[in-house]
Each structure stands twice: as C-alpha cells, then as structure tokens.
C-alpha cells in the first residue's frame, strides 16, 4: 500500500516538472487547458495576424503565406489588421480563445506587445514573429523571429549612395520617406542608412517623414518635400510603393525621376523592379516577402516541441538598373 502511494506521488511530481519545462516562465494562469500540446486531428491550426494590405510587398507576402499553408497541410486562420495595432491584438486574443496550435504575426509596430504575448504564453500557445520584430525584453514570449535584417538593408542603400558620389565633393541633399512610424523596418532602415551616410559630411538629410509604406502617402509627402526644398538630389524611400508614389510627384513637378532626383527604394516588388529597369529608380535593396515555406516548417517544429533558432534571417540581395532588366522576367513577386 505504502509503495503504491509513493509511486503515485512520484508520478504526480514528474507530471508537474514536465508541465514546468514545457512553459518556462509562463507565470500564473495557464490553468490546465489542453491547447498548445500539439495538433488535434493531425492538422495544425495556425492563426496569422497580418499587418494589412498596404503595399505590393504585403500582397505578395499574404499570398505566399496562404499558398504555403495549404501545401504544408496547415489549417490557416487569417486576419488583416489594416495597419492598426489594436486590430492585431484583437485577432491574437481571438486566436487564443479558439485555442489554435500556433500563432504567427507580423507586428505593425515594435512596442506594446508584452501583455497579449503573455496571454498567449499563459495559454501555452507558441508564437512566431514573421517579418517584423517586437521590442519586448522577455524573448521567451515568442519562439522565433523569421524575417529580414532591416538595418543591413538601410546600410546597403547608404553604401550605394556613398559609392555613387565618391568622386564628388559637392553637397548631396537627401530626402527620406520613412515607413510606418514605430515599425521595425522604418526604425531600422532609417538608422542603417543614416549610420552610413552620416560618416561623410557632404551628405545632408534635409527632410525625413513617414509615408506609411503606401503609394498615396508617398506621393503626398514627396509633393510637400518638393514644395519646400528646391534642391533635392536624392530620395531614399523605405519601400517601392512610396518610391512609386514619389515618382508621380516628381514628374508632376516637372522633374525627371532617376536623373534630376536619384531614387533608392527597398523591397524589389514587380512594379518597383519595372521602374528600376525603366530608369526611374536607380537602386533597389531587396526584401524578400516569400517566407511562407520557412514559416510553415518552423510552425511544425514549434508545435511538435522541437528546438528552433531564436532568429532566422532571410537571404537578400540588391539590384541596379542593369540587373533589374536581366532578372525582371523571372521574378516571382
Ligand atoms: O518593406 C513594406 C511593407 O515589413 C518588410 O512592410 C515589411 C515592409 C515592406 O509594407 O513594403
């Protein structure tokens, strides 16, 4: 009898320790629900909270996630937050309520996620960040972050400019169209670019403002830049869409994009690459939206309790006008 009791106590203790390991630092709550323990009926359910549909990049990213989920046999619940953090938080809370197996999302801005991420952790639902980062100090709140190195992208843009003007001593007046305020790509592309160009005092960033990653806003802000600054040499736009909007503004002001004003953008979407091949943009730093396949692989591992790296960086390159002409027919987005 005594033996049986101690065996039971031992079994209970083991179960407790195991529950403890599965959810390190999960704090209180998590009161014995059955979610997060792996897929039910063999099919993994993923809740994906997308930023919005603000750009060509985002459209390609969404399509890729939907297609690759299907290929991987993952049941995808998808929501579009229309670039609003509150909508994304609502979507994540509803995925927690629905007890999905894994939540993936592309945070519209970097800060303000700790509370909802803690809620997911308490419900034992693993979270994967895709594309954009959060600034949470507690990195146990998410399993991995899959996406580009935006600082590197900003540096590549700056380096191209430095190389272009290496033989000139004249001042170079730059305007910058920033992405969505507070978003990781806007913060990092700005700091990467500025770090490189500020090393040479001939480069001056004479205006810098958000165009929210959209074509319409890019055009509007560029029109304002052109009105107040007669001498713009270079535009650095944090994505193709804002660059394309700015091209309309520049043409509207009777100037020639790519010649009177040199343009650098990020993304390398189809429309951006076409404008680069046509000579209206001068240089594009690639940012690859096709990360669905990697995301689905990571999701399967995370749901199965396998170890995944904390950070997975997507591979990217850059394009000149000549290179754009060559690769345009074979581009996938
Ligand atoms: O560059 C921009 C989009 O987060 C990398 O978001 C993404 C950015 C991309 O709206 O076009």
TrEMBL record:
Residues 52-307 form the Periplasmic binding protein domain. It is found in: Cell envelope. PROSITE patterns: PROKAR_LIPOPROTEIN. It comes from the Bacteria. PANTHER family: D-ALLOSE-BINDING PERIPLASMIC PROTEIN-RELATED, GALACTOFURANOSE-BINDING PROTEIN YTFQ. InterPro entries: Peripla_BP_I (IPR028082), SBP_2_dom (IPR025997). Keywords: Signal. Belongs to the bacterial solute-binding protein 2 family. This is Monosaccharide ABC transporter substrate-binding protein, CUT2 family. Its main location: other. GO terms for cellular component: cell envelope. CDD domains: PBP1_galactofuranose_YtfQ-like. Pfam families: Peripla_BP_4. Residues 1-19 form the signal peptide. One of its GO terms (molecular function) is carbohydrate binding.
